[in-house]
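Narrative of accomplishments. A recurring question from our advisory board has been how the design workflow behaves on a single, concrete structure rather than in aggregate. To address it, we present the structure tokens for one chain from the evaluation set, followed by the sequence designed for it. No filtering or post-editing was applied between the two.
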């Protein structure tokens, strides 16, 4: 059975899409998408030999070798023009790593119309990247699995405008304000307040003063956003 987290990613894959799942590990996501009849063709990319071997083994075990091509490659180098990939999924990594994969493989993005990204942390840098590179957020979700909170961002080509708080929190997530969302940001505020308390005691160097101001700013920004 697929994790709730990857099921959420899968729910945003359009019927009939040609998917490249980058950092696929066991290739659970592409296998699931094909078994469910959502798609008929996928690429599973892995840069590390161990997870690549797991993906190859899994795809063979599920008799999907004719539908899923597993490639040992760094990021979007796993995608070839003749694959006609239109949807890319990247899940289970930090936001900065996801952004660097997208940036380093720009050529492979030409045929792509949808990105489904699941950062474990720092979703903010993905929103910043999207704003800059002409991608618009189509939807966002947040979920809790085994005590960990995950965000899923769905991007399509287009322009958008986001306020500072929407870049940090997610425009759609902020509009929905689910319980998980509120829990996540309350915890963040607590963490920031803890850091703030500990640096209040430090010698006030320019760095400390700047950090303090930044934390004050973040705390009031998020508190206001949660209240509204
Ligand atoms: N996507 C799966 C999931 O969400 O359950 C696996 C997540 S796993 C934590 C991250 C995987 O990404 C690892 O198997 C790692 O080898 C792979 N990875 C990291 N950087 C990569 C890159 N530049 N290109 C391809 N795969 C990468």
């Amino acid at each position: 059975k697929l994790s709730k987290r990857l099921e959420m990613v899968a729910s945003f894959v359009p019927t009939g899409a040609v998917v490249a799942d980058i950092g696929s590990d066991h290739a659970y996501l592409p296998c699931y998408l094909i078994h469910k009849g959502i798609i008929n063709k996928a690429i599973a990319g892995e840069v590390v030999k161990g997870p690549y071997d797991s993906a190859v083994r899994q795809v063979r075990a599920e008799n999907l070798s004719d539908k899923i091509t597993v490639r040992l490659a760094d990021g979007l180098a796993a995608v070839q023009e003749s694959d006609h990939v239109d949807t890319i999924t990247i899940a289970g990594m930090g936001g900065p790593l996801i952004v660097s994969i997208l940036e380093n493989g720009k050529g492979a993005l030409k045929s792509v119309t949808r990105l489904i990204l699941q950062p474990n942390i720092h979703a903010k840098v993905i929103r910043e990247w999207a704003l800059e590179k002409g991608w618009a957020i189509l939807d966002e979700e947040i979920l809790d699995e085994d005590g960990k909170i995950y965000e899923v961002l769905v991007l399509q080509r287009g322009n958008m405008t986001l306020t500072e708080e929407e870049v940090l929190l997610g425009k759609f997530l902020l509009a929905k304000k689910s319980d998980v969302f509120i829990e996540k940001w309350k915890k963040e505020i607590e963490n920031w307040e803890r850091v703030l308390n500990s640096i209040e005691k430090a010698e006030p160097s320019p760095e400390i003063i700047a950090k303090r101001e930044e934390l004050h700013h973040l705390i009031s920004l998020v508190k206001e956003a949660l209240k509204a």
